[in-house]
Each structure stands twice: as structure tokens, then as C-alpha cells.
Amino acid sequence: MKLKFSLPVSLLIAVVLFISSCQGDKxxxxxxxxxxxxxxxxxxxxxxxxxxxxxxxxxxxxxxxVEVTQDTFKDKIYIADFFFTSCTTICPTMHRNMKEIxxxxxxxxxxxxxxxxxxxxxxxxSVLKKYAQKLxxxxxxxxxxxxxxDSVYKIAEKDYLVAVxxxxxxxxxxxxxxxxxxxxxxxxxxxxxxxxxPQKVAQLMKDIPVLLAEDKK
Amino acid sequence: MRKHLIAIVFSCVLATIIYSCQNAAQxxxxxxxxxxxxxxxxxxxxxxGAKGEGLGTLTPPLTDTTFxxxxxxxxxxxxxxxxxxxxTVNGQQYEGTMPAFAELxxxxxxxxxxxxxxxxxxxxxxxxxxxxxxALKATE
Lengths: 217, 140
What we know:
The structure holds 2 protein chains of 2 kinds. Chain A has 5 helices and 11 strands. In chain A, the strands form 4 sheets. Chain A has a 5-stranded mixed β-sheet. In chain A, a hairpin with a 7-residue loop joins strand 8 (164-166) and strand 9. Chain A has helices at 7-23, 91-104, 125-135, 149-159, 198-214, and strands at residues 34-40, 46-52, 60-61, 67-68, 77-83, 111-117, 142-145, 164-166, 174-176, 179-183, 189-194. Chain B has one domain (25-138): Orthogonal Bundle (Cytochrome Bc1 Complex, Chain D, domain 2), CATH 1.10.760. The A-B interface holds A 88-93, 95-96, 99, 131, 133-137 and B 45-47, 49, 55-59, 96, 99.
């Protein structure tokens, strides 16, 4: 028997194959400023390499008053955000959404979370500990960190690209953006999602496996 | 054709009768409920959640019908003046504070309470602005 496809059918098959082959290559963008650097190759010739924005070394105290550094997140992808415990505006929504992700990846040791408090006056580690316990996420995978105003505000604006401002006229005393920032194992920014928008959070949930798969290749 | 026309007119009349039979109190409660939902989204949903589910043990859920019933006369002042004491909801203790919403008027609080006490599995009927101002006076 001879198989004979009509032209529309074969066209359709071609389109389906084309689309499905594209999906396999889905990659998340690398965000932030980048620069080109001239590098020397092993054979002595020179080439141009792209240098991406990465999160620099940091040191903060977590909810157990233990120092947290880049080593804590070695070979992990993590989601970073900025909040404060007495915030009644966007923080509860952000953390409700983030907790959903936390529950989903509970058994995956490669996914972690890093919440920086911007209330350097009140949110000492003991306050963060209580907050973590009450949120029901105090198992070490979700780090709540405290640092000096300078160190936290600088890393927020310069490195995670999240705006945070101390403002005594605002409810709670601080203004900040609700981004959930996705960081890969090379410390590069791979996504920023509005943590108060359920659709954006759903996108983040879809992007996590894409980023995890990238390192498996 | 004529038969159809009569049937349509008849059902219109019937619908009008049924509609106007809906009693005025129910209509008032429905108006409060709808306005209360807007206020809830604006002032309460961040912490208490879209389904009144609360957040961990940071924020209590609004699903404890018994709590809402037994504390009916305190609910208005909870909203207007906030909460500083530990409260027990669904058998779970909640410490910490709830912020005060001093800017809300009695009518706003009444509408909010109608929404909350008739959603999330609760069904406790109307709450009037008069009841709110009396309750607020009693806790002063």
C-alpha cells in the first residue's frame, strides 16, 4: 500500500513539526546590563566575550542569626524579593503567591528563596524567625535576611534592580516594588515577575522548570 | 403568532410580579454585599485573601462562623480600631496586631461586615450602620 498525503495535510504536519521543534529550545532571557570584553583564547588568539550582570557577593543574617552568603545558594536557583514584616499592602499577597511556589517545589533541593527585609529598624532576626514560622515556611529553603540599610538598599537597586525607599509618609514607612526576581546558578537575573499579579506568578511557575532544565543539558 | 405574543406578554408580567415581590430588605442587603466586596478587595484582601483563607498564622481566616457570631458586637471595633490582643480563630491562636482602619465610615464598616459575614461559608444576614455606631460606642 502506498501512503499518499495531500498537500494541505503534509503542510500541516510540517507546521506542527516546526512548532514542536522550537519549543524544545525555549530559554529564559538573561536580564540586566551587559558588556563585551576582549579575552585571550587558549591558543593565543583574542576573541570577544559577553559579560552578563551577576549578583555580587553579599553577607546577611538570616532568621536564625546565621550568616547567609552566595555559598548558601551555590548550585541553586533562587527567587529573591524585598519586603518587611509589618507591611500590610503588597507583601502579604507576594508571600502568599511565593508560598504557593514554595509548596510546589518543596521536594526540590535546587530551588530556594531569599527575602530581604527593608525595615532595618524593627525586623531583627528574631522578628524574621517569628514571621517565617507563622508563614509556615521555616525549613531553611526560604531564607529571610536582615542587613544594614546601606547593604540591603544598595543590592536591591544596583543588583536585583528593585526600587526600595524609606518614606515616613507611606503606610508602614517604606515604599518598594513587588518583583520576584529569578536568579540562576551563575548568579544571573533570568526573570522578574510582579509578585502581586497571579498571571505573572503563574508565568514564574512555568519558567522555573525551564531554568532547571537548562543546567541538565 | 397571536398565541406567542400573549405568552410573551404574560411571562413578562409574571417576571415583574416576582421581581417586585423580592423584599426591600433583601435588596438592601444585596447592595451592601456588593459595595462591601469592593471595600474588602481594597482594604482586607491583601492579608485575609480572596477566599477569606487568611495567611499562615500571620493572618486569621474569616471562615470561622462561630467566632463571627459570638463576637458580632466586637467586629466593628476590630475594623475601626484594629486588634492588639491575641485572638483564637478556628482553634488557632493569632497574636500580633491588625491595623486600624480609622478612616472608614460606619456605612463602610456595615457594608464590609455584610460582605464578610455572608461570604466564605458564612450566612448571617444584614448589618446596619446603626448597629455599627452602637457597637463602636459600646466599646469606647
